## 1
Amino acid sequence: MKANCWYGKNKLSVETVKDPEILNSRDAIIKISSTAICGSDLHLYNGFIPSMEKGDILGHEFMGEVVEVGRDVKNLKAGDRVVVPFPIACGHCFFCQKQLYSCCENSNPNAPLAEKMWGHSPAGIFGYSHLLGGYAGGQAEYARVPFADVGPLKIDADLSDEQVLFLSDIFPTGYMAAEHCNIQPGDTIAVWGCGPVGLFAIKSSLLLGAERVIAIDRFPYRLRMAREKAGATETINYEELNVLEGLMDLTGGMGPDACIDAVGMECHTPGPIHAYDRMKQAAMLENDRPHALRQAILACRKGGTVSVAGVYSGFIDKVPFGAIMNKALTIKSGQTHVQKYMKPLLERIKKREIDPSFVVTHTLALGEAPNGFQIFNDKEDECVKIILKPGD
């Protein structure tokens, strides 16, 4: 089969590789109809995630048709159309029983490696380094799905791939980020980052009852999409306006009720603090650039919530923890427990409360994946979200 493979920083190639096989009785093999490039894939592309190996297949947002199942998979059969959640979860451990699927105890075969980094291991993730299991990803023609009796969600034929593909990751991720804010009627939410997750966090905040959502970014086309497609009530271009001052002006000096960091480790900001973070990162004295997180902590009102949906890999510097403690802030974060949200969010799609396809700006053949990564990474052609079609 053809698959998009990682060969080093900014080095990808679509290669012919061995077809996946059933390895466990709870496996399924999926023929992929649509897959996507995620913002967190760019962390791999730019060399910020350790434990990648040459030839690793990328991609954790995918869907398609079941072509084979293991003997213990009773809920799926060949021919079923499914969306696959990005975290791999056994469904039976302590954490899965609490619907904390991204914390599954049994799906990361390289758990000791992750424990050295984070103290405990999260779940395995498709196509996202050997630190998180070394699983082949979904930017390919076929994929092996472990624990297929727990993860994949069957999809009706009357819904397009573009409407449901993002149930695999970015729609639940934005929704969980908003849910973490414990939104009350009249609340004001600020969202850092108007990429796909940020856009879904904006839309989800409004679905959950926020009165105002303030979107923060630096690209005019992303801010325009935040207003026109996601429904942001106000926007701030952080290259034109001081974010903290702007948020205080918009909230009468109170600060937003909750702040969502949908940026993560590759945050950009003007001024010397960006140069400081880049220097520390280059010297391996800091893993991630956390400026959006710093701003969110400082901007959030007293007693409010900071919800972190952006991916962070390791150690960060100059986080104002004194503001967290003295302002009585709540911090909520985590890889998304996608399996928990897939069915409820599918119902919202069916009821036409939301059409997730609004984020799609580019559709490419799988063979164009390396070029797609460059377009997405460099923000060319007003790119927000790319879908790859293995069959084209």
## 2
Amino acid sequence: MTTMTEPTTQTLDVPGAVLTYDIRRAEAPTTAPVLFVIGSPMGASGFGTLAGHFTDRTVVTYDPRGVERSTKADPASPSTPDEHADDLHRLIAKVMADLDAGPVDLFASSGGAINALALVAKHPEQVRALVAHEPPLATVLPDREGAMAATQAIHDTYERSGFGAGMAQFIVAVGHRGPMDAAFLAQPAPDPAMFGLPVEDDGNRTDPLLGQNMPSGPHYEPDFEALRAASTRIVLGAGMESEGQMASRGAFAVAERLGTTPVSFPSGHGGFLGGEYGQPGEPDAFAAKLREVLAG
């Protein structure tokens, strides 16, 4: 049985940031494509369990700019999917050159799925297969205006009142099932204390989720013409337990624009988690499904 080596950590300078990434090499020789496993704003620490299910491959994880070990020149500035896509382009090129490898396979979760779609639209030659799991794209939904207003409001609340208030509003929005209509938008602001979040504002405005990537990620407009023409095999994934939530609805909407059908993955939005951040998913079943999808 193939075993995976301990990860080696490296850095890559990119415009405006320094990226930190980990390479887990399979000990036995393999012809399988290198597998990139990414999220946003989730960093490499969220993918340890999932990476451990692919011991027959070299697996690369990374911290997006401004997240965990990856720094930004201006931590309070927005990070856009196009910037993340350029970071990924440079990182994949570096890894391909260092390992003398061909096009990679890419599993991308949440905001990482949005960034991966931006990457494939511009550099399809770098990616053999993309599994984009639950991209929370407000722009592609039938209730586009309401969804965009809700995600803008999360950022505005954070800027006005700080982390606790912004995160409480985020939790309510991502857990909501169904359209984000006028009734949803008119709800009173949730109390951060209900979720065990701080009520006081600490003055920090550099949070990767609420400050740097909201609303630039959900408000991204994918280049569907380029995606339909790409050589990359693109598969959208949606969690079995996420039905009706914005990220799952985003997967269905993107798949419809690409003329495909989403693949159902076990559990919910974080189905691959094995206790990272205190969140248990169904990582064994999730990894088995991912392996099946990558095999095509």
## 3
Amino acid sequence: MFLLAAAFNVMPALIMEPTRAELVFIGGAHALFLVRLASAHAAASKQRTIDLERFRQMKRATPS
């Protein structure tokens, strides 16, 4: 969803025929945003594994 929002956000800037400086600024900002999305995705996937293991430990420790 955020990736789609970033794509739609950059579209108007590209349609307006920006200068080189504007392209660098807008492209750089969007590139940093995409790096942030990728790092958040990686962190969330690691956290999911940790949470799943904790849940399994709790389930084993709980008497039936």
